[in-house]
Amino acid sequence: MTHVVIPLYEGVTPLDFAGPYQLLRTLPEMDIELAAIDRKKIVADGLTFGELLDLETIEACDILLVPGGLGCIAALEAPRFLAVIRRLAEGATYVTSVCTGSLILAAAGLLTGRRAASHWAFRELLAAFGAIPDAGRVVRDGNRITGGGVTAGIDFALSLIAELRGEEAAQAAQLLLEYAPEPPFDAGLPETAPRSVMDAVNARLSTALADAERRIAVVAHHLRNDA
DSSP 3-state assignment of 85? Predict the structure, then answer.
């Protein structure tokens, strides 16, 4: 049985973990647990996730999968949350993330000197914690496997399944879920999106990004002083 732990927090992006969860669920002998500090109900984009396990009581896991979302900044500011991420990572075979979940891993000191992916708008913030930003959709560095922004979680999960059970198992999961993307627009990356779209999205994210930069600088400063 492969034990996967997905820690949730307020403001997590549901698709960051729902995509990987659905793909991993296609495999036999997978024990996937969703957990939160104090078993708190988590509200994310209007969805409520309840009946979660208490994250701090989970002793160990084979795979730690940290999802992202705008709530990741508050999560990486929380000492209890970072402490359990560090503890679970110590014994995990794979330490993984999707989207800005890599910022949480980095703040926990788990990506220092390692290449890591994240959402394109927040990727460079990884450097504040000593990680190496990588524009790859799925990036592996040792036993750290990180996915890019949100939908990259599906590609990440297929890569993880191939690592765990082989390429044929990954292809079977892909076929079962009919993952054959044909997006109607080629606007999924800054390099391909029209300038007007890029400007609009940057404007939408500007306040959140500025806030994240400020708060991450504070956390990184404290971590350096505590080291």
Answer: helix
Neighbours of 43 (CB within 10 A): 14
Residue 207, classed as helix, strand or coil, is: helix
Structure tokens at 183: 């997006």
| Separation between Cα atoms, residue 99 and residue 118, nearest integer Å | 4
Contacts of 11 (CB under 8 A, 6+ apart): 44, 69, 70, 71, 72, 74, 75
81, 42 Cβ separation under 8 angstroms: no
Distance, CA of 21 to CA of 107 (rounded, Å): 24
> Please, what are the domains in the chain?
2-182 (3.40.50.880)
CA distance 81 to 69: 15
With both helix axes pointing from N to C terminus, report the angle between 152-165 and 14-24 in degrees, rounded to the nearest 10.
30
Tell me the catalytic residues. 99
Span 111-140, average pLDDT: 98
Q: Would you call 23 helix, strand, or coil by DSSP?
A: helix
Map residue 196 onto helix, strand or coil.
helix
CB 55 within 8 A of CB 70: no
> What's the whole-model pTM score?
0.97
pLDDT digits (tens, 9 = 90+) for 170-226: 999 999 999 999 999 999 999 999 999 999 999 999 999 999 999 999 999 998 888
Return the H-helix or E-strand segment holding 27. Answer: none
Task: Give CA–CA dist 69/71, Å, rounded.
Answer: 5
